[in-house]
Amino acid sequence: MKLKNVLIVVEDIEKSIAFYKELFGLNVILDNGGNVIMTEGLVLQDAEIWRRFMERDIIPQNNATELYFEESDIERFVEKLKSYKEPIQYVTHLMEHPWGQKVIRFYDPDGNLIEVGTPM
């Protein structure tokens, strides 16, 4: 058995596709109308479809999981975040851990937690 994808729930798939393409360089591999598979194994699921399947509420900003990306030029990435067309809601601004890794945490447009760190 192997893990194939990570699925996150989003209210506006087109907005989320643009977010992940413009900031992270991810591209759409397959669009099933309400379920979009992107490069790097990220799947975007339409929130209304998810609610119907799960019969449960979606809890944005629950901080129970995060998407983790690595970027060697993290200062350049921070500038990219600052100039993004939509406001970014930060959880932590750029910081350096005691072991030397620099990281920044923020939410995507739907409250999914993202961490970007320098490679270890």
TrEMBL record:
Any Pfam family matching the protein: Glyoxalase_2
UniProt domain VOC: residue ranges: 2-119
UniProt cross-references to InterPro entries, sorted A to Z: Glyas_Bleomycin-R_OHBP_Dase, Glyoxalase-like_dom, GlyoxalaseI/FosfomycinResist, VOC_core
Protein name according to UniProt: Glyoxalase
Taxonomic lineage of the native organism: Bacteria, Bacillati, Bacillota, Clostridia, Lachnospirales
